[in-house]
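Complex record, two chains
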Amino acid sequence: GENVEQHPSTLSVQEGDSAVIKCTYSDSASNYFPWYKQELGKGPQLIIDIRSNVGEKKDQRIAVTLNKTAKHFSLHITETQPEDSAVYFCAARKFTGGGNKLTFGTGTQLKVEL
Amino acid sequence: NAGVTQTPKFRVLKTGQSMTLLCAQDMNHEYMYWYRQDPGMGLRLIHYSVGEGTTAKGEVPDGYNVSRLKKQNFLLGLESAAPSQTSVYFCASSSSGTDTQYFGPGTRLTVL
């Protein structure tokens, strides 16, 4: 089955700096890669996603890049703000025609310090 | 529009007791999922359903059962709880036409 590795497990940055979180996946047939943000005491929420036919996607201060050859994808957050502090999860999915099963990484605790 | 709701929010069980976690969604989504979240292990899929009356096993299904008698509800059951099932449980739903999964607020379960 699919295996997703995520690094680092914790990341501390100064407000205004950039943050980068990296994930690798094992199944070359995976074609959809979402990123979820989980605030304390809440469920995860989708913040951005990318499909295998796209190399980069940007939404305001967040961007995701995908390297299919190397089987890795990354989340980039620029101009970090205190409200960006949360746990971030990457995930990968191989379309199988039955459901939308995601395999998640182990999460990155991002702390934005003032 | 409440989205995805979970009942209860917290629960403490003794080893061997049984319980049912309820997930409800009001978005008319076809797909529903149960995950467990443990420190350092991310979210792992327990069971999922692609429609009313259908269920399937995920990555870690042992010790759990599920039922989807109504499209809007997805129940997760523990017949004989074990300390290894202490975790935070999340329900999610998604439409068959899109990829986004919408998560509930979670249930924190402790098995003593």
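Note: Residues 36 and 46 of chain A are 4 Å apart (CA to CA).
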